[in-house]
Amino acid sequence: MFLHGSWGHIIGNMWFLWVFGDNVEDKLGKLRYIVFYILCGLGAALTQTFISLSFGGADVPMVGASGAISGVLGAYMKMFPNAKILALVPIFIFFTLMELPALIFIGIWFFIQIVNGIVTLPFIGYGGVAWYAHIGGFLTGYLLIDFFYKRKAYYY
Question: What is the value of pTM for the model shown?
Answer without folding.
Answer: 0.91
